[in-house]
Amino acid sequence: xxxxxxxxxxxxAQEGEFITINCSYSVGISALHxxxxxxxxxxxxxxxLSSGKKKxxxxxxxxxxxxxxxxxxxxxxxxxDSAVYICAVSRANFGNEKLTFGTGTxxxxxx
Amino acid sequence: NAGVMQNPRHLxxxxxxxxxxxxxxxxxxxxxxxxxxxxxxxxxxxxxxxxENIIDESGMPKERFSAEFPKEGPSILRIQQxxxxxxxxxxxxxxxxxxxxxQYFGPGTRLLVL
Lengths: 111, 114
Known about the structure:
The complex is a heterodimer.
Chain A: E1 4-7, E2 10-14, E3 19-25, E4 31-37, E5 43-49, E6 52-56, E7 59-64, E8 69-74, E9 83-90, E10 99-101, E11 105-110
Parallel strand pairs in A: 2-11
Antiparallel strand pairs in A: 1-3, 3-8, 4-5, 4-9, 6-7, 7-8, 9-10, 9-11
Chain B: E1 5-7, E2 10-13, E3 19-24, E4 29-37, E5 43-50, E6 53-56, E7 65-68, E8 75-79, E9 88-96, E10 104-105, E11 109-113
Parallel strand pairs in B: 2-11
Antiparallel strand pairs in B: 1-3, 3-8, 4-5, 4-9, 5-6, 7-8, 9-10, 9-11
């Protein structure tokens, strides 16, 4: 079983819909990261969080440490949000914060 | 402040050749991580380096792969005698010295082994 599981694997939605992507992990972590990988392949870090909730524009990330679960929400989705969204966890070990990744959620927003 | 830079962006090698991938971290960053993304697979950790030191190479194949981060210059991921299975996207990411910070990813190097 992977240490980081994401669902769904693929998600297609109409423009304007509210999007939720889920991430569960099975290990103790120091932080959880949400990343976005564009069709061209570049990776952008969206959020790094260890508790509570963070918001940036139309994106919201939440984490429940007790349940080992995080969600990424996109409000008023737009075709430019189409990308692969990747959940990753880090377990700080003397400064080593290597990431363990989920397999990603491929999001397609249809105009 | 330039972002993380990687070069080349695309690299084609024939089986048995060597591949050298370079990563220049963001200014002020002294931690470098290399990750590999095989076709249709997720990202996997390879190696973590600080200046002049390999801290964790647990994700790197024991043979043919090596990494360095010299005092001056970029971090280098070196693959000797490449095989078709090495074809992948290789990303590096950097973070500041104090740790506990977001990792910033480079654009990746797409390696194709013919």
